[in-house]
Design goal:
The complex is a heterodimer of chains A (262) and B (314). Chain A is built from eleven helices and no strands. With 262 residues, chain A is mainly alpha-helical. In chain B, the strands form three sheets. In chain B, strands 6-7-8-3-9-10 form a six-stranded mixed β-sheet, sandwiched between helices. A four-stranded antiparallel β-sheet of chain B has the order 2-1-4-5. Classes of the chains: A mainly alpha (262), B alpha/beta (314).
Protein backbone atom coordinates (compact mmCIF):
# COMPACT_ATOMS: atom_id res chain seq x y z
CA UNK A 1 0.00 0.00 0.00
CA UNK A 2 2.97 2.22 -0.67
CA UNK A 3 0.83 4.52 -2.79
CA UNK A 4 -1.55 5.32 0.07
CA UNK A 5 -0.27 8.22 2.23
CA UNK A 6 0.67 7.16 5.76
CA UNK A 7 -1.75 9.72 7.25
CA UNK A 8 -4.67 8.20 5.38
CA UNK A 9 -3.82 4.79 6.84
CA UNK A 10 -3.69 6.26 10.37
CA UNK A 11 -7.21 7.66 10.00
CA UNK A 12 -8.35 4.22 8.84
CA UNK A 13 -6.61 2.65 11.86
CA UNK A 14 -8.54 4.91 14.19
CA UNK A 15 -11.85 3.63 12.90
CA UNK A 16 -10.56 0.07 13.01
CA UNK A 17 -9.66 0.53 16.68
CA UNK A 18 -13.17 1.79 17.42
CA UNK A 19 -14.65 -1.06 15.41
CA UNK A 20 -12.65 -3.68 17.28
CA UNK A 21 -15.02 -3.07 20.20
CA UNK A 22 -18.25 -3.65 18.30
CA UNK A 23 -17.42 -5.93 15.36
CA UNK A 24 -19.32 -8.94 16.63
CA UNK A 25 -22.63 -7.13 16.80
CA UNK A 26 -22.26 -5.47 13.42
CA UNK A 27 -21.11 -8.67 11.72
CA UNK A 28 -24.17 -10.46 13.09
CA UNK A 29 -26.30 -7.62 11.72
CA UNK A 30 -24.67 -7.96 8.32
CA UNK A 31 -25.86 -11.57 8.22
CA UNK A 32 -29.27 -10.94 9.68
CA UNK A 33 -30.41 -8.29 7.19
CA UNK A 34 -30.05 -10.39 4.03
CA UNK A 35 -31.33 -13.54 5.74
CA UNK A 36 -34.53 -11.81 6.86
CA UNK A 37 -35.11 -10.07 3.54
CA UNK A 38 -34.45 -13.14 1.42
CA UNK A 39 -36.60 -15.34 3.64
CA UNK A 40 -39.60 -13.01 3.70
CA UNK A 41 -39.53 -11.33 0.30
CA UNK A 42 -37.48 -13.81 -1.69
CA UNK A 43 -39.06 -17.04 -0.49
CA UNK A 44 -42.33 -15.84 1.04
CA UNK A 45 -43.43 -13.27 -1.50
CA UNK A 46 -41.44 -15.02 -4.24
CA UNK A 47 -43.67 -18.11 -4.06
CA UNK A 48 -46.69 -15.99 -5.03
CA UNK A 49 -44.82 -14.16 -7.78
CA UNK A 50 -43.44 -17.35 -9.30
CA UNK A 51 -46.77 -19.19 -9.14
CA UNK A 52 -48.52 -16.34 -10.98
CA UNK A 53 -46.56 -17.39 -14.06
CA UNK A 54 -45.68 -13.85 -15.05
CA UNK A 55 -43.13 -13.45 -17.86
CA UNK A 56 -41.92 -10.03 -16.77
CA UNK A 57 -38.91 -11.51 -15.02
CA UNK A 58 -37.95 -13.54 -18.09
CA UNK A 59 -38.25 -16.97 -16.51
CA UNK A 60 -36.12 -16.09 -13.50
CA UNK A 61 -37.24 -17.09 -10.00
CA UNK A 62 -38.18 -14.05 -7.95
CA UNK A 63 -35.50 -14.70 -5.33
CA UNK A 64 -32.91 -14.80 -8.11
CA UNK A 65 -34.21 -11.50 -9.39
CA UNK A 66 -34.46 -9.85 -5.99
CA UNK A 67 -31.31 -11.16 -4.23
CA UNK A 68 -28.50 -9.49 -6.19
CA UNK A 69 -30.50 -6.26 -6.54
CA UNK A 70 -30.97 -6.20 -2.80
CA UNK A 71 -27.23 -6.60 -2.36
CA UNK A 72 -26.61 -3.38 -4.28
CA UNK A 73 -29.47 -1.54 -2.57
CA UNK A 74 -28.21 -2.62 0.86
CA UNK A 75 -24.74 -1.37 -0.01
CA UNK A 76 -26.34 1.98 -0.84
CA UNK A 77 -28.01 2.11 2.58
CA UNK A 78 -24.91 1.08 4.51
CA UNK A 79 -22.69 3.48 2.57
CA UNK A 80 -25.07 6.35 3.16
CA UNK A 81 -25.46 5.66 6.85
CA UNK A 82 -21.71 5.33 7.43
CA UNK A 83 -21.21 8.71 5.74
CA UNK A 84 -23.73 10.60 7.89
CA UNK A 85 -23.43 10.35 11.67
CA UNK A 86 -19.84 9.06 11.87
CA UNK A 87 -18.61 11.88 9.63
CA UNK A 88 -20.58 14.67 11.28
CA UNK A 89 -19.59 13.29 14.69
CA UNK A 90 -15.91 13.66 13.85
CA UNK A 91 -16.53 17.38 13.44
CA UNK A 92 -19.09 18.19 16.15
CA UNK A 93 -19.44 15.38 18.72
CA UNK A 94 -16.19 13.71 19.65
CA UNK A 95 -14.40 16.13 17.31
CA UNK A 96 -11.73 13.55 16.45
CA UNK A 97 -11.16 15.10 13.03
CA UNK A 98 -10.02 18.29 14.73
CA UNK A 99 -7.73 16.22 16.97
CA UNK A 100 -6.24 14.52 13.90
CA UNK A 101 -5.74 17.82 12.11
CA UNK A 102 -3.66 19.10 15.03
CA UNK A 103 -1.10 16.40 14.12
CA UNK A 104 0.70 15.88 10.79
CA UNK A 105 -2.54 14.29 9.46
CA UNK A 106 -3.97 16.42 6.63
CA UNK A 107 -7.66 17.12 5.91
CA UNK A 108 -7.20 15.05 2.76
CA UNK A 109 -6.05 12.13 4.93
CA UNK A 110 -9.11 12.59 7.13
CA UNK A 111 -11.42 12.43 4.08
CA UNK A 112 -9.69 9.55 2.30
CA UNK A 113 -9.09 7.52 5.47
CA UNK A 114 -12.76 7.86 6.44
CA UNK A 115 -13.92 6.85 2.96
CA UNK A 116 -11.41 4.01 3.01
CA UNK A 117 -13.02 2.79 6.21
CA UNK A 118 -16.48 2.96 4.65
CA UNK A 119 -15.12 0.94 1.72
CA UNK A 120 -13.88 -1.68 4.15
CA UNK A 121 -17.27 -1.85 5.87
CA UNK A 122 -18.99 -2.19 2.49
CA UNK A 123 -16.60 -4.97 1.56
CA UNK A 124 -17.63 -6.92 4.66
CA UNK A 125 -21.34 -6.28 4.14
CA UNK A 126 -21.36 -7.23 0.47
CA UNK A 127 -19.20 -10.30 1.03
CA UNK A 128 -21.51 -11.53 3.77
CA UNK A 129 -24.49 -10.76 1.56
CA UNK A 130 -22.99 -12.77 -1.30
CA UNK A 131 -22.39 -15.74 0.97
CA UNK A 132 -26.01 -15.60 2.13
CA UNK A 133 -27.25 -15.37 -1.47
CA UNK A 134 -25.31 -18.49 -2.36
CA UNK A 135 -26.69 -20.18 0.75
CA UNK A 136 -30.24 -19.42 -0.38
CA UNK A 137 -29.51 -20.88 -3.80
CA UNK A 138 -30.39 -17.53 -5.35
CA UNK A 139 -27.38 -17.45 -7.65
CA UNK A 140 -26.89 -18.99 -11.12
CA UNK A 141 -23.32 -17.98 -11.97
CA UNK A 142 -19.93 -17.94 -10.24
CA UNK A 143 -19.65 -14.40 -11.61
CA UNK A 144 -21.49 -13.44 -8.41
CA UNK A 145 -18.10 -12.87 -6.78
CA UNK A 146 -17.86 -9.75 -8.93
CA UNK A 147 -21.03 -8.49 -7.27
CA UNK A 148 -18.82 -7.78 -4.23
CA UNK A 149 -16.87 -4.95 -5.97
CA UNK A 150 -20.12 -3.82 -7.61
CA UNK A 151 -21.74 -3.49 -4.19
CA UNK A 152 -18.64 -1.69 -2.95
CA UNK A 153 -18.83 0.84 -5.79
CA UNK A 154 -22.57 1.32 -5.36
CA UNK A 155 -22.13 2.01 -1.64
CA UNK A 156 -19.23 4.38 -2.27
CA UNK A 157 -21.12 6.23 -5.00
CA UNK A 158 -23.51 7.32 -2.24
CA UNK A 159 -21.08 7.46 0.67
CA UNK A 160 -18.73 9.91 -1.04
CA UNK A 161 -21.46 12.41 -1.91
CA UNK A 162 -23.14 12.06 1.48
CA UNK A 163 -19.80 12.46 3.29
CA UNK A 164 -19.20 15.67 1.36
CA UNK A 165 -22.63 16.87 2.48
CA UNK A 166 -22.10 15.78 6.10
CA UNK A 167 -18.84 17.73 6.23
CA UNK A 168 -20.80 20.93 5.61
CA UNK A 169 -23.39 20.34 8.35
CA UNK A 170 -23.53 21.78 11.88
CA UNK A 171 -26.51 19.69 13.07
CA UNK A 172 -27.93 16.32 12.10
CA UNK A 173 -31.48 17.36 11.21
CA UNK A 174 -31.06 17.10 7.43
CA UNK A 175 -29.93 13.47 7.57
CA UNK A 176 -33.55 12.46 8.01
CA UNK A 177 -34.43 14.07 4.71
CA UNK A 178 -31.71 12.10 2.97
CA UNK A 179 -32.95 8.81 4.35
CA UNK A 180 -36.63 9.55 3.85
CA UNK A 181 -36.68 11.39 0.53
CA UNK A 182 -33.64 10.00 -1.26
CA UNK A 183 -32.55 6.62 0.04
CA UNK A 184 -35.95 5.16 0.84
CA UNK A 185 -37.48 5.91 -2.62
CA UNK A 186 -34.33 4.73 -4.37
CA UNK A 187 -34.39 1.54 -2.34
CA UNK A 188 -37.96 0.83 -3.41
CA UNK A 189 -38.01 2.07 -7.00
CA UNK A 190 -34.60 1.41 -8.55
CA UNK A 191 -35.29 -1.99 -10.00
CA UNK A 192 -34.55 -3.95 -6.84
CA UNK A 193 -38.04 -5.31 -6.18
CA UNK A 194 -39.48 -5.03 -9.70
CA UNK A 195 -38.07 -4.06 -13.12
CA UNK A 196 -37.99 -0.31 -13.75
CA UNK A 197 -40.01 -0.95 -16.92
CA UNK A 198 -42.97 -1.13 -14.52
CA UNK A 199 -42.43 2.51 -13.53
CA UNK A 200 -44.34 5.32 -15.25
CA UNK A 201 -42.51 6.23 -18.47
CA UNK A 202 -41.22 9.58 -17.27
CA UNK A 203 -39.55 8.04 -14.21
CA UNK A 204 -37.51 5.50 -16.13
CA UNK A 205 -34.83 7.96 -17.31
CA UNK A 206 -34.60 9.23 -13.73
CA UNK A 207 -33.64 5.76 -12.56
CA UNK A 208 -30.80 5.77 -15.09
CA UNK A 209 -29.38 8.87 -13.41
CA UNK A 210 -29.03 7.18 -10.02
CA UNK A 211 -26.01 5.00 -9.21
CA UNK A 212 -28.10 2.39 -7.43
CA UNK A 213 -29.97 1.46 -10.62
CA UNK A 214 -26.67 0.68 -12.30
CA UNK A 215 -25.43 -1.24 -9.28
CA UNK A 216 -28.62 -3.32 -9.17
CA UNK A 217 -28.47 -4.05 -12.90
CA UNK A 218 -24.81 -5.06 -12.74
CA UNK A 219 -25.18 -7.26 -9.67
CA UNK A 220 -28.20 -8.99 -11.16
CA UNK A 221 -26.44 -9.61 -14.47
CA UNK A 222 -23.50 -11.12 -12.63
CA UNK A 223 -25.65 -13.36 -10.43
CA UNK A 224 -27.63 -14.62 -13.42
CA UNK A 225 -24.53 -14.95 -15.59
CA UNK A 226 -25.95 -12.60 -18.23
CA UNK A 227 -23.74 -9.58 -17.47
CA UNK A 228 -21.51 -9.95 -20.52
CA UNK A 229 -24.27 -10.64 -23.04
CA UNK A 230 -24.31 -6.91 -23.70
CA UNK A 231 -20.75 -5.67 -23.12
CA UNK A 232 -21.65 -2.07 -23.96
CA UNK A 233 -24.32 -1.97 -21.27
CA UNK A 234 -21.92 -3.58 -18.79
CA UNK A 235 -19.34 -0.90 -19.48
CA UNK A 236 -21.90 1.91 -19.17
CA UNK A 237 -23.07 0.64 -15.77
CA UNK A 238 -19.50 0.29 -14.52
CA UNK A 239 -18.38 3.68 -15.83
CA UNK A 240 -21.33 5.45 -14.23
CA UNK A 241 -20.55 3.87 -10.85
CA UNK A 242 -16.83 4.64 -11.03
CA UNK A 243 -17.61 8.18 -12.21
CA UNK A 244 -19.89 8.81 -9.24
CA UNK A 245 -17.24 7.51 -6.84
CA UNK A 246 -14.49 9.68 -8.32
CA UNK A 247 -16.55 12.88 -8.38
CA UNK A 248 -17.91 12.18 -4.89
CA UNK A 249 -14.43 11.53 -3.50
CA UNK A 250 -13.19 14.80 -4.91
CA UNK A 251 -16.15 16.64 -3.36
CA UNK A 252 -15.62 14.94 0.00
CA UNK A 253 -11.93 15.87 0.14
CA UNK A 254 -12.77 19.46 -0.73
CA UNK A 255 -15.57 19.66 1.85
CA UNK A 256 -13.37 18.29 4.66
CA UNK A 257 -10.59 20.73 3.74
CA UNK A 258 -13.01 23.63 3.86
CA UNK A 259 -14.36 22.50 7.19
CA UNK A 260 -11.02 22.00 8.92
CA UNK A 261 -8.87 24.76 7.42
CA UNK A 262 -10.43 28.01 8.61
CA UNK B 1 28.69 26.65 9.82
CA UNK B 2 27.40 23.52 11.49
CA UNK B 3 23.86 22.33 11.00
CA UNK B 4 21.76 21.92 14.10
CA UNK B 5 19.00 23.57 16.03
CA UNK B 6 19.68 27.25 16.65
CA UNK B 7 18.84 27.76 20.27
CA UNK B 8 19.13 31.53 20.11
CA UNK B 9 16.22 31.99 17.68
CA UNK B 10 12.73 32.46 19.10
CA UNK B 11 10.47 29.40 18.92
CA UNK B 12 7.66 31.61 17.71
CA UNK B 13 8.20 34.80 15.77
CA UNK B 14 5.19 36.87 14.71
CA UNK B 15 5.17 40.23 12.92
CA UNK B 16 2.03 41.99 11.77
CA UNK B 17 0.16 38.71 12.28
CA UNK B 18 -3.42 39.14 11.09
CA UNK B 19 -6.45 36.88 10.84
CA UNK B 20 -9.66 37.95 9.16
CA UNK B 21 -12.92 36.04 8.75
CA UNK B 22 -14.71 37.90 5.98
CA UNK B 23 -15.09 41.45 7.22
CA UNK B 24 -14.31 40.55 10.84
CA UNK B 25 -10.72 41.04 11.99
CA UNK B 26 -10.05 38.48 14.72
CA UNK B 27 -6.33 39.23 15.07
CA UNK B 28 -5.10 42.65 14.04
CA UNK B 29 -1.42 42.93 13.11
CA UNK B 30 0.12 41.66 16.35
CA UNK B 31 3.87 41.26 17.02
CA UNK B 32 5.37 38.87 19.56
CA UNK B 33 8.23 36.43 20.13
CA UNK B 34 8.36 33.38 22.36
CA UNK B 35 11.77 32.15 23.51
CA UNK B 36 12.74 28.52 24.09
CA UNK B 37 11.88 27.33 27.59
CA UNK B 38 9.53 30.18 28.29
CA UNK B 39 5.97 30.00 29.61
CA UNK B 40 4.15 32.60 27.56
CA UNK B 41 0.54 33.65 27.98
CA UNK B 42 -2.19 35.38 26.04
CA UNK B 43 -4.51 36.99 28.58
CA UNK B 44 -7.79 38.50 27.49
CA UNK B 45 -11.57 38.17 27.54
CA UNK B 46 -13.54 35.89 25.23
CA UNK B 47 -13.42 37.14 21.66
CA UNK B 48 -10.11 38.99 22.07
CA UNK B 49 -8.44 36.88 19.35
CA UNK B 50 -6.53 34.46 21.58
CA UNK B 51 -7.88 31.25 20.09
CA UNK B 52 -7.46 32.50 16.51
CA UNK B 53 -3.83 33.28 17.31
CA UNK B 54 -3.32 29.84 18.84
CA UNK B 55 -4.89 28.12 15.84
CA UNK B 56 -2.51 29.95 13.52
CA UNK B 57 0.49 28.96 15.65
CA UNK B 58 -0.86 25.40 15.68
CA UNK B 59 -0.73 25.29 11.90
CA UNK B 60 -4.44 24.56 11.38
CA UNK B 61 -5.62 28.05 10.43
CA UNK B 62 -4.13 30.00 7.50
CA UNK B 63 -2.48 33.35 8.22
CA UNK B 64 -4.37 36.16 6.44
CA UNK B 65 -1.47 38.61 6.55
CA UNK B 66 1.90 39.05 8.21
CA UNK B 67 4.76 36.80 9.19
CA UNK B 68 4.56 33.77 11.45
CA UNK B 69 7.48 31.45 12.02
CA UNK B 70 7.07 28.52 14.41
CA UNK B 71 10.04 26.36 15.42
CA UNK B 72 12.02 28.10 12.71
CA UNK B 73 9.55 27.03 9.99
CA UNK B 74 7.22 29.15 7.88
CA UNK B 75 3.62 28.64 8.97
CA UNK B 76 2.32 29.18 5.42
CA UNK B 77 4.26 26.34 3.84
CA UNK B 78 5.32 23.97 6.62
CA UNK B 79 2.06 23.24 8.47
CA UNK B 80 2.47 19.47 8.78
CA UNK B 81 6.15 19.72 9.79
CA UNK B 82 5.26 22.27 12.47
CA UNK B 83 2.35 20.18 13.73
CA UNK B 84 4.64 17.14 14.02
CA UNK B 85 6.62 18.96 16.73
CA UNK B 86 3.77 20.57 18.68
CA UNK B 87 1.65 19.41 21.59
CA UNK B 88 -1.83 20.90 21.38
CA UNK B 89 -4.39 21.14 24.18
CA UNK B 90 -7.52 22.52 22.49
CA UNK B 91 -10.16 24.55 24.27
CA UNK B 92 -12.84 21.87 23.87
CA UNK B 93 -11.91 18.24 24.43
CA UNK B 94 -11.36 16.22 21.27
CA UNK B 95 -10.93 12.84 22.93
CA UNK B 96 -12.57 9.76 21.45
CA UNK B 97 -15.22 8.90 24.02
CA UNK B 98 -15.73 5.42 22.61
CA UNK B 99 -12.12 4.37 23.15
CA UNK B 100 -10.35 3.59 26.40
CA UNK B 101 -8.00 6.05 28.07
CA UNK B 102 -4.93 4.17 26.88
CA UNK B 103 -6.28 3.62 23.38
CA UNK B 104 -6.74 7.36 22.99
CA UNK B 105 -3.02 7.82 23.60
CA UNK B 106 -2.04 4.84 21.45
CA UNK B 107 -3.85 6.01 18.35
CA UNK B 108 -2.70 9.59 18.83
CA UNK B 109 0.90 8.37 18.82
CA UNK B 110 0.10 6.64 15.53
CA UNK B 111 -0.98 9.96 14.01
CA UNK B 112 2.60 11.13 14.59
CA UNK B 113 3.93 8.02 12.90
CA UNK B 114 5.07 6.21 16.07
CA UNK B 115 5.20 2.43 15.98
CA UNK B 116 2.48 0.75 18.07
CA UNK B 117 5.01 -0.56 20.61
CA UNK B 118 6.70 2.81 20.99
CA UNK B 119 3.35 4.56 21.27
CA UNK B 120 2.32 2.09 23.95
CA UNK B 121 5.54 2.60 25.90
CA UNK B 122 5.08 6.37 25.89
CA UNK B 123 1.37 6.02 26.69
CA UNK B 124 2.17 4.10 29.87
CA UNK B 125 4.76 6.67 30.93
CA UNK B 126 2.39 9.56 30.30
CA UNK B 127 -0.52 7.90 32.10
CA UNK B 128 1.76 7.73 35.09
CA UNK B 129 2.71 11.39 34.66
CA UNK B 130 -0.92 12.56 34.63
CA UNK B 131 -1.92 10.07 37.35
CA UNK B 132 -4.39 8.10 35.27
CA UNK B 133 -2.68 4.69 35.26
CA UNK B 134 -5.47 3.16 37.32
CA UNK B 135 -8.06 4.32 34.81
CA UNK B 136 -6.20 3.24 31.69
CA UNK B 137 -8.74 0.66 30.55
CA UNK B 138 -11.82 2.76 31.29
CA UNK B 139 -13.82 4.23 28.45
CA UNK B 140 -13.13 7.96 28.25
CA UNK B 141 -16.81 8.82 28.59
CA UNK B 142 -16.66 7.67 32.24
CA UNK B 143 -13.95 10.18 33.23
CA UNK B 144 -14.54 13.44 35.09
CA UNK B 145 -13.82 16.77 33.40
CA UNK B 146 -10.51 17.15 35.22
CA UNK B 147 -9.38 13.65 34.26
CA UNK B 148 -10.28 14.26 30.62
CA UNK B 149 -8.21 17.42 30.73
CA UNK B 150 -5.23 15.54 32.15
CA UNK B 151 -5.64 12.86 29.50
CA UNK B 152 -5.67 15.57 26.84
CA UNK B 153 -2.40 16.89 28.27
CA UNK B 154 -0.89 13.40 28.20
CA UNK B 155 -2.07 13.02 24.62
CA UNK B 156 -0.44 16.31 23.68
CA UNK B 157 2.88 14.99 25.03
CA UNK B 158 2.95 11.70 23.10
CA UNK B 159 5.18 13.10 20.33
CA UNK B 160 7.61 14.62 22.88
CA UNK B 161 6.86 18.15 21.63
CA UNK B 162 9.25 21.08 21.92
CA UNK B 163 6.33 23.45 22.24
CA UNK B 164 3.00 23.00 24.01
CA UNK B 165 -0.02 25.08 22.99
CA UNK B 166 -2.68 25.21 25.69
CA UNK B 167 -5.94 26.95 24.86
CA UNK B 168 -7.71 27.74 28.14
CA UNK B 169 -6.34 24.62 29.84
CA UNK B 170 -8.51 24.82 32.96
CA UNK B 171 -11.70 26.55 31.84
CA UNK B 172 -14.72 24.77 33.27
CA UNK B 173 -12.81 22.78 35.90
CA UNK B 174 -13.48 22.89 39.63
CA UNK B 175 -10.72 24.41 41.82
CA UNK B 176 -9.19 21.10 42.88
CA UNK B 177 -9.02 19.79 39.32
CA UNK B 178 -7.50 23.08 38.19
CA UNK B 179 -4.71 22.82 40.74
CA UNK B 180 -3.92 19.28 39.60
CA UNK B 181 -3.62 20.50 36.00
CA UNK B 182 -1.51 23.48 37.04
CA UNK B 183 0.78 21.18 38.98
CA UNK B 184 1.41 19.00 35.91
CA UNK B 185 1.99 22.03 33.69
CA UNK B 186 4.39 23.45 36.23
CA UNK B 187 6.39 20.22 36.10
CA UNK B 188 6.56 20.44 32.32
CA UNK B 189 7.86 23.96 32.64
CA UNK B 190 10.52 22.77 35.08
CA UNK B 191 11.64 20.21 32.51
CA UNK B 192 12.20 22.98 29.99
CA UNK B 193 9.16 22.49 27.74
CA UNK B 194 8.08 25.75 26.17
CA UNK B 195 4.47 26.52 27.09
CA UNK B 196 2.17 28.92 25.28
CA UNK B 197 -1.25 29.31 26.83
CA UNK B 198 -4.35 31.42 26.62
CA UNK B 199 -6.50 32.17 29.58
CA UNK B 200 -9.03 34.60 30.89
CA UNK B 201 -8.14 33.68 34.46
CA UNK B 202 -5.62 36.08 35.93
CA UNK B 203 -4.64 33.60 38.65
CA UNK B 204 -3.77 31.06 35.99
CA UNK B 205 -1.64 33.59 34.15
CA UNK B 206 0.10 34.59 37.40
CA UNK B 207 0.73 30.97 38.37
CA UNK B 208 2.13 29.74 35.09
CA UNK B 209 3.39 32.57 32.88
CA UNK B 210 6.91 34.00 32.86
CA UNK B 211 5.72 36.59 30.40
CA UNK B 212 2.42 37.48 28.87
CA UNK B 213 0.62 39.77 26.50
CA UNK B 214 -2.75 41.27 27.25
CA UNK B 215 -5.10 41.03 24.25
CA UNK B 216 -8.20 43.10 23.73
CA UNK B 217 -10.27 43.55 20.58
CA UNK B 218 -7.81 41.68 18.32
CA UNK B 219 -4.78 43.69 19.46
CA UNK B 220 -1.99 43.34 22.00
CA UNK B 221 -2.38 46.17 24.50
CA UNK B 222 0.48 45.37 26.89
CA UNK B 223 3.36 42.96 27.33
CA UNK B 224 5.60 41.93 30.23
CA UNK B 225 5.94 39.58 33.19
CA UNK B 226 2.93 39.48 35.53
CA UNK B 227 4.92 41.53 38.06
CA UNK B 228 6.09 44.10 35.55
CA UNK B 229 2.55 44.58 34.27
CA UNK B 230 1.19 45.08 37.75
CA UNK B 231 3.95 47.55 38.60
CA UNK B 232 3.45 49.44 35.37
CA UNK B 233 -0.32 49.59 35.21
CA UNK B 234 -1.50 49.27 38.79
CA UNK B 235 -0.57 50.17 42.36
CA UNK B 236 0.74 47.79 44.97
CA UNK B 237 -2.58 47.46 46.79
CA UNK B 238 -6.27 47.85 46.13
CA UNK B 239 -9.04 48.71 48.56
CA UNK B 240 -12.41 47.28 47.45
CA UNK B 241 -15.56 48.89 48.81
CA UNK B 242 -19.05 47.40 48.54
CA UNK B 243 -22.11 49.42 49.44
CA UNK B 244 -25.75 48.51 50.05
CA UNK B 245 -27.80 48.84 46.84
CA UNK B 246 -28.34 52.45 45.78
CA UNK B 247 -25.72 54.02 48.06
CA UNK B 248 -22.75 53.88 45.65
CA UNK B 249 -24.47 56.34 43.31
CA UNK B 250 -24.88 58.94 46.07
CA UNK B 251 -21.19 59.13 47.04
CA UNK B 252 -20.66 62.03 44.64
CA UNK B 253 -17.17 63.42 45.25
CA UNK B 254 -16.75 62.01 48.78
CA UNK B 255 -13.93 59.68 47.67
CA UNK B 256 -12.04 62.26 45.59
CA UNK B 257 -8.27 62.26 46.18
CA UNK B 258 -8.35 59.43 48.69
CA UNK B 259 -6.38 57.13 46.32
CA UNK B 260 -4.14 57.41 43.26
CA UNK B 261 -6.92 56.13 41.03
CA UNK B 262 -10.55 55.12 41.45
CA UNK B 263 -12.49 52.58 39.35
CA UNK B 264 -16.28 52.57 39.62
CA UNK B 265 -17.71 49.13 38.83
CA UNK B 266 -21.44 48.40 38.93
CA UNK B 267 -21.17 46.40 42.16
CA UNK B 268 -18.11 47.91 43.87
CA UNK B 269 -15.57 50.72 43.97
CA UNK B 270 -11.83 50.00 43.61
CA UNK B 271 -9.34 52.41 45.20
CA UNK B 272 -5.75 52.04 43.95
CA UNK B 273 -2.89 53.06 46.29
CA UNK B 274 0.45 51.83 47.66
CA UNK B 275 -1.00 51.45 51.15
CA UNK B 276 -4.52 50.01 51.12
CA UNK B 277 -4.98 50.13 54.90
CA UNK B 278 -4.27 53.84 54.92
CA UNK B 279 -6.99 54.33 52.30
CA UNK B 280 -9.43 52.34 54.41
CA UNK B 281 -8.69 54.57 57.40
CA UNK B 282 -8.99 57.71 55.28
CA UNK B 283 -12.46 56.91 53.97
CA UNK B 284 -13.61 56.02 57.46
CA UNK B 285 -12.39 59.44 58.62
CA UNK B 286 -14.44 61.05 55.86
CA UNK B 287 -17.53 59.36 57.22
CA UNK B 288 -18.04 56.97 54.32
CA UNK B 289 -19.53 53.67 55.61
CA UNK B 290 -19.30 50.81 53.04
CA UNK B 291 -20.91 47.44 53.81
CA UNK B 292 -17.56 45.70 53.32
CA UNK B 293 -13.98 46.86 52.93
CA UNK B 294 -11.36 44.52 51.45
CA UNK B 295 -7.68 45.40 51.13
CA UNK B 296 -5.74 43.16 48.69
CA UNK B 297 -2.73 43.03 46.40
CA UNK B 298 -3.12 44.24 42.81
CA UNK B 299 -3.60 41.44 40.28
CA UNK B 300 -3.63 41.14 36.50
CA UNK B 301 -7.36 41.70 36.71
CA UNK B 302 -6.59 45.26 37.79
CA UNK B 303 -4.11 45.62 34.97
CA UNK B 304 -6.74 44.54 32.51
CA UNK B 305 -9.31 46.90 33.98
CA UNK B 306 -6.87 49.76 33.70
CA UNK B 307 -5.96 48.93 30.09
CA UNK B 308 -9.42 48.29 28.73
CA UNK B 309 -11.88 49.76 31.21
CA UNK B 310 -13.53 46.35 31.48
CA UNK B 311 -13.24 43.27 33.68
CA UNK B 312 -11.88 39.98 32.30
CA UNK B 313 -14.71 37.64 33.25
CA UNK B 314 -18.05 39.25 32.72
Amino acid sequence: MAFVPAGTIRVFEHRALEYSRVWRATLFNSFLTPVLFLASMGLGLGTYVDSAGSTVLGGVRYIEFLGPGLLAATAMQVGTFEATFPILGGFIWNRVFHAMHATPISPRDVALGSLGWIAFRLLIVTTVFTVVLVGFGAVRSPLIVLAIPVGLLTGLAFATFVAAFSATQRVMTKFNYIFRFVIQPLFLFSGTFFPIEQLPGFLQPVAWLTPVFHGVALARGLALGTAFESPALFVIHAVVLVGFVLVGTWLAVRAVERRLVV
Amino acid sequence: MTEGPRTDLPLIHARGLTKRFGSITAVDAIDFDVARGEAFGFLGPNGAGKTSTMRMIGGVSPVTEGLLRVLGLDQRTDGPRIRARLGVIPQTDTLDNELSVRENLLIYGRYFGLKWAESGRRADELLDFVQLTERKDDIVEQLSGGMKRRLTIARGLINEPELMLLDEPTTGLDPQARHLVWDRLYRLKQRGTTLVLTTHYMDEAEQLCDRLVVMDKAKIVAEGSPRQLIERYSTREVTELRFPPGIQETLDGQLDGVAERIEWLPDRVLLYAEDGEAVAVAIHDRGVRPETVLVRRSTLEDVFLRLTGRTLVE
